[in-house]
Design brief:
It is a single chain. The strands form three sheets. A six-stranded parallel β-sheet has the order 2-1-3-4-6-5, sandwiched between helices. By secondary structure, the chain is of the alpha/beta class. It has helices at about 5-15, 30-35, 50-60, 75-90, 115-120, 135-145, 185-195, 210-225, 255-265, 320-325, 335-345, 360-370, 385-390, 410-420, 435, 445-450, 465-475, 490-495, 505-515, 540-545; strands spanning about 20, 40-45, 65-70, 95-100, 125-130, 155-160, 200-205, 230, 245-250, 265-270, 295-300, 310-315, 375-380, 400, 425-430, 455-460, 500, 520-525. It has three domains: about 5-165, Rossmann fold (3-Layer(aba) Sandwich); about 185-345, 3-Layer(aba) Sandwich (Rossmann fold), CATH 3.40.50; about 350-545, Rossmann fold. It is globular, with a radius of gyration of 24 Å.
Amino acid sequence: MPIGGQLIVACLEAQGTDRVFCVPGESYLPVLDALYDSPIETIVARQEGGAAMMAEADGKATGRPGICFVTRGPGASNAMSGVHVAQQDSTPLILFIGQVAREFRGRDAFQEMDFETTFSAVAKLTLEINHTSKIPEVMSQAFNTAINGRPGPVVISLPEDMLTDETNAQPCALVTPEENVPQKKTIDEFEALLRAAKAPVVIVGGSRWNAESVNKVQRWANSNKIPVTASFRRQHLFDNLDAAYIGDLGIGANPELLGLIEKSDLVILLGGRLSEIPSQSFTLLDVPQPKQQLVHIHPGPEDLGRVYQPTMAINASPGAFLEAISVATKTKDSDYLPNAHDSYLKWSIPSPGDQGQINMGGLVHKLCDELSDDAIITNGAGNYASWIHRYYRFRSFQSQFAPNSGSMGYGLPAAIGAKLRFPERQVVCFAGDGCLQMTIQELGTAKQYGVNIIVIVVDNGMYGTIRMHQERSFPYRVSSTELINPDFAQIAEAYGFFSGTAETDDQFNALFQAALEEAKPCLIHLKTNPEEITPTMTISQLRDRSSN
């Protein structure tokens, strides 16, 4: 008879899992041993936070739960960062944590933690498997919870002695997402609202999208001449060069875009939640009663009416909703659509930079021509990302992997997870100097598994986002935001990367062209002017504004 560790791996195989991410630990050795004989690929990360973020990116890429294994205590604590990303990004993820033996529970045993208490505020579900016979039951529940409704993370605790118990239980059957299909009456009411609207706008966001639903919303928007904006870090849900696209609701959004939504008489929130960042700190729509008519379509019923009281609440995934509506519905022409798209195009063209220096806007914008339309851009948190969101034009689904949670260190693990899932696509990771150093050790993971990504380290010698807020609130009083950085190119070279340092546009362009030709992972250490803290403001300008 198989033991618990073997049955867990068999259940993963039955769910179609083909890759797991981990940092090994003695608390789940039977699982590691079972993976030895499994067709499932095991990716060994350098730190549990990196492993969990790689798994989260894999969940984004597949729509199936990303799988991560870590050990108890400090291993689980480190993995919390990736679980939080999955929660805020609505990504399916299952984190398995080795636990102390059942007989030792409650004695404060070595590395013991109460995982239900620790993770219950972040995970959709936290469970412990205390009997091998219940492994299929718990695995089925975990997969159902992770992928249905609003997707999210599930945490499963595995007592180490349970993993060696024998069982005759069989693997659980394949779990597939359940779809709530809107009733015809609901769709008729929605289409009546749309026909009556003079200035509708669609905001796409959230998860539960696929290539088919992305194509459908694009066809539908163009058929009905309805402008579409993307929520924060969801720009890949709509071709940015399509005539119906009008920009993204991120940090530093186009004022003309915000004005358009302000004047809209019908806001269609499709798939997302319109939380703090895209709502411009909950000011874009009035809370709880928007002055615009609001239709909110979301797969998780618990998020309908949670912040905003909608005119219509439709519990459905984007795909199910788009399948139910008519291709063409709107009869009144929207005369503002061409102007709105032109406004986005102008907003996303950078100003010329100073000769001999790095022009971040121009550098990012030029990548649109240098990379293929399906290239993947990843990033973590930091002001450097604002240049990406404003000046890079995302053309295809799953070309953007970025954390809604604003998690530093995300870009590198996400790039590894994305490249493993899409080896034929170009993958470029942007990371700030502070951001990269949260997970820099995962350069070793990229090299070990031949993950040929390009990492661009934007080095301005500071925690830039915090410095920006600091200068706004306490100008000239720099405290705890400066960084003394290593030579990132030398570190990457030590890991076996192709690497180099750029301090001018010409140097960067030469290095980037070389990186595109390399058959190994690459890193470019990009030294930027610390004065240029945002695409529109310098530190000196911030200080002057704050002092007056």
